[in-house]
Amino acid sequence: MNESRHSPLHDEHVALGAVLTDFAGWQMPLRYGSDVAEHTAVRTAAGLFDLSHMGELEVSGPGAARGLDRALVGNLTALEPGRARYTMICAPDGGVLDDLVVYRLEPERFVVVANASNVEVVRAALTERLEPADGATLTDRSEQTALIAVQGPTAESILLGLVEPDRVEAVRALRYYAAVPAQVDGVEALVARTGYTGEDGFELFVDSAAAPGLWRTLLAAGAPHGLVPAGLSARDSLRLEAGMPLYGNELDRTTTPHDAGLGRVVRLDKVDDEGSPLPFVGRAPLEARAHAVPARTLVGLEGLSRRAARHGYDVVTPTGAVVGTVTSGAPSPTLGHPIAMAYVTPEVSAVGTDLAVDVRGRQEPVRVIALPFYRRTR
């Protein structure tokens, strides 16, 4: 059996008394104290997350953009330097191999951020799909890169107090899904404004060796602003409230982007240098799926009782007919009642439809509601 890998911040988590868990082959903090307290801190102040288990794959060279256009479902040629894009890498049959965030740092330099469980799959697929004629080079930067996220309404105030003075305005002006290089407490960082919690916030890509010192600095600087370290449990409940998919739950090899309501990321309008439709892996089945009647639809479910639905539970009609499966579910600390996402048949997917979830043999009432469950107003 392979031993779990350790984040560059592992010793920091141990010193803070974190409960550690195996996640995608990594020992990562599940929580430091209370799941609900960490969740609430992110909604009301700020949370500090270690995301160093994510993978960073650099693709560079004169044909990097065109190569990524053929490898992924998105249009990376149209992405401006300094911006990021949510996209996916699909199998030839259209099934999702992973959902990704791609940053264009320079005209000929991209960083593809992959989920921890899929780094090897994404690296192998990109290696196969980037043709020699592209003049593109793939370099795995995951080992050398740590990723720290500061999320919540006070995240900007915390971070700006540590950014070098001549880069403060550049960081403050960052749009959603954009990134700029800056020094944070003297540490060279790529500062991105993306996030996975439904709140404003930043991700800091830094050298692994510099991560522990920066982590401690952020904790100290953020304490007066209400910042606390937050683990995977809070991260999961936050992303669920925000209606964001998790690979292995809402997305997997049997799911297309369209199934998950994310057909917008599939860019069928991509063209080659002659103006013809650009072939990319999975194009034909995804184009067919875009115009087909769906067999299932991803919906939000509002729990009408106290018991929460969980991943894998059956969704049923009031008469007991199985019409779907829960992909993610938990009590919502922000809303005060259980919530879930589920794939259901189209005829029961309309907002307002009353259904039930089989929770250990008992039918708990739920109602279909629009996603996301939570949207920040600040």
UniProtKB/TrEMBL annotation:
Listed GO biological process terms: glycine decarboxylation via glycine cleavage system; methylation
Reactions catalysed: N(6)-[(R)-S(8)-aminomethyldihydrolipoyl]-L-lysyl-[protein] + (6S)-5,6,7,8-tetrahydrofolate = N(6)-[(R)-dihydrolipoyl]-L-lysyl-[protein] + (6R)-5,10-methylene-5,6,7,8-tetrahydrofolate + NH4(+)
Residues given in the record as substrate binding sites: E203
Keyword tags: Aminotransferase, Methyltransferase, Transferase
Pfam family, any one: GCV_T_C
One term under GO cellular component: glycine cleavage complex
Residue span(s) of domain GCVT N-terminal: 9-270
Domain Aminomethyltransferase C-terminal per the UniProt entry, residue ranges: 296-374
GO MF annotation list: aminomethyltransferase activity; methyltransferase activity; transaminase activity
Entries under SUPFAM superfamilies matching the protein: Aminomethyltransferase beta-barrel domain, Folate-binding domain
EC number from the UniProt entry: 2.1.2.10
InterPro entries (UniProt xref): GcvT, GcvT/YgfZ/DmdA, GcvT/YgfZ_C, GcvT_bac, GcvT_C, GCVT_N, TrmE/GcvT-like
Ranges in a coiled coil: none
Subunit organization: The glycine cleavage system is composed of four proteins: P, T, L and H.
Family per similarity comment: Belongs to the GcvT family.
HAMAP family: GcvT
UniProt function note: The glycine cleavage system catalyzes the degradation of glycine.
Protein name: Aminomethyltransferase
